[in-house]
Amino acid sequence: MPRNAVIGVDIGTSSSKGVLVGLDGTLIRSAVREHTPARPGPGRFEMDAAVWWREFTELSRELTAAGDAIVVAVGVSGMGPCVLLTDEHDTPLRPAILYGVDTRSVRQIERIEARLGAEEILRRGGSALTTQAAGPKITWIAEEEPGLYARARRLYMPSSWLVARLTGAYVLDHHSASQCTPLYDTHTHGWYAPWAAEVAPGIDLPPLRWSGEAAGTVTAEAARETGLPVGIPVTTGTIDAWAEALSVGAQHTGDLMLMYGTTMFLVHTVPKALTSPSLWSTIGALPGTRNLAAGMATSGAVTNWLRDLFADGDHAELTRLAAESGPGAGGLLMLPYFAGERTPVMDPDARGVIAGLTLSHTRGDLYRAALEATGFGVRHNIEVIEAAGGDIRRVVAVGGGTQGSLWTQIVSDITGRPQELRTVTIGACYGGSLLAAQLVGDARIDDWNPVRTTVTPRAGHTGRYDELYALYRRLYPATSDLVHTLAALQDR
């Protein structure tokens, strides 16, 4: 007898993931479609929205092919903030510009700050204007592709694009909107019309809802393409990291989520609005919640790069070699700024640095240095979060990088923070399925996804990592002038 279930789908940077989940939280089936963003120039990352919908339909059909479940609701999430502009008929006008890994809008940021005022943007929008923000990316299209922009009427992100294709609704969640700096007012929880007209002229910004609210129901056309039942509800959805936090119950005041993925993302839940020019202050996924957020531009992206460089390597083998390398990676120190860096340095022209190389260093040393670089970056962000008034009481880890024990152990050793691991760590698509289940029932994450284990720091490594962290903090200022010159050469 088929059981009732929900589907959760997340559109990520390197793959789309989907899960079929019973209403009790049981993971029935999962599926993945890998993809690679286009890189049309230095500092530019784009993706065709047709990929998002095609992969959703493929995942939906694969997840339901066995006929052992009746899907009663759908949850969606996706990377962001991204900028997909369409005309009034929802025809995409160009590939979507991705989130902070795309750094093309530096000049637009400078001009917008000059017109609106950097302090006023921080006060009203909660975050300083950086290449993470959606607003300057819209302005970039208006200035660099004016003929195309003249036809632009609507703004989408991956999650809201799936909602539109599934239900016909044009909506966006409050959290995603709060990353559209400077278009959203975090005090009034709505679009700020004067700045919207300045930064995104002619765009009919979407109505706003909370992530767990129903955006609409599956249309007959979408049902034919996806195999889903007509009329089932679809969540409004949100950005992937916030769905990840929901998937492991990290939405209470004092919680900090660490998302181990292609990038490393940190979401700290705070009781009131806190701002820092080195972080992002956002509206939460749930009503009444606020966050201080941080994000490293790379983490798993660097380990994937190393795996690809070592043609005969794979992550399992490289992890084994990294464990043998030991704390300190044989005297190597890495800056993980291979795609610029987001928080807390906010430097799109930062570049990766590997210091201390000798002819005796091995693949395991390099891989270990990459894992440790992530840990140092997390520690740096945690210190800035707490300096801004954050009060971190619990750390919860999630994402593909938690599957092996070494990476999470290294991060706990470097930060001195225990990390809670839940039973299911698949991430955003599971969080999306939780919100979908809450549309049709009383799903609770502690029942769905109980704590499996806690990674505790090893005291014997504290001194070594404290010494290396001090060197890590010196390495960026010591090399920034040089790498900025190199970054300029790369742009030619």
From TrEMBL:
MF terms (GO), sorted A to Z: kinase activity
Domain Carbohydrate kinase FGGY C-terminal: 257-437
Pfam families: FGGY_C, FGGY_N
Zinc-finger recorded as keyword: no
Ranges where the Carbohydrate kinase FGGY N-terminal domain occurs: 6-245
EC number: 2.7.1.-
Enzyme class: transferase
Keyword Kinase: yes
Record InterPro entries: ATPase_NBD, Carb_kinase_FGGY, Carb_kinase_FGGY_CS, FGGY_C, FGGY_Carb_Kinase, FGGY_N
Annotated keywords: Carbohydrate metabolism, Kinase, Transferase, Xylose metabolism
Family: Belongs to the FGGY kinase family.
Protein known as: FGGY-family carbohydrate kinase
Organism: Streptomyces viridiviolaceus
Source species taxonomy: Bacteria, Bacillati, Actinomycetota, Actinomycetes, Kitasatosporales
